[in-house]
Amino acid sequence: MPMALPGKRGSTLRWSPWNLLLAVPLLWLITPLFNRTGPELFGMPFYYWFQFVGIPVGVLCTTLVFFKTADEPTKPAPGVGLDVDDLDEGTSR
Prior knowledge:
By secondary structure, this protein is an all-alpha fold.
């Protein structure tokens, strides 16, 4: 079990806005949540309109992640800005 840092209370789990992108796929894995016909909305069984509600929820989650992470600096890809000699790891000097 991971130990908490001194002076800190609570869980050692970290929250990231990127976790919101998992909300809709994980919600759809809970089959008993939507495996029923009622209540109906405009004559559509619950299963169908529950699927349709997932579309705006997914768009909302994606939008929130975009705005929360838009100001974060981007990290260069590994190897970008290195010289050929820096990339040649197989030779000895």
